[in-house]
Write a structure and sequence with these properties.
Layout lengths: L19 H21 L16 H18 L6 H12 L3 H16 L5
Helix pairs in contact: 2-3
């Protein structure tokens, strides 16, 4: 494996036992952070006209299908009939429409809360 860099990921878990004063200070700090986070990132109202909440789970499946089709295409020889069929699969698995839906949702969020 000459010339190939490897990334080493490590995780450490620590446990500490704060004094009662430290515990109250930590609780106060985390409470303030939680309040600030909730105020900065309000939960968006992403319902359609009928009041149903849209589910982005279909996008995950589409991305998986797209990745599988692209990997299959990468293994095909240039100019072969199999590559042409694999290109069609990639074209069918496109997720541009879903991206447009996500971008529309981002634009709604950027516009801020709607007047009701």
């Amino acid at each position: 494996m000459c010339g190939v860099a490897q990334i080493v990921r490590r995780a450490y878990r620590y446990r500490f036992y704060p004094t009662p004063e430290q515990a109250s200070e930590l609780a106060r700090t985390f409470g303030c952070v939680r309040v600030g986070y909730k105020k900065a990132r309000p939960i968006p109202d992403l319902t359609d006209q009928d009041g149903r909440v849209t589910n982005p789970g279909h996008e995950r499946a589409g991305r998986r299908r797209m990745g599988k089709a692209q990997r299959s295409l990468a293994r095909k020889a240039a100019g072969s009939a199999n590559r042409a069929r694999a290109r069609l699969k990639v074209a069918r698995a496109r997720i541009a429409d879903r991206r447009r839906d996500v971008n529309a949702a981002k634009n709604v969020l950027a516009a801020g809360p709607a007047e009701r």
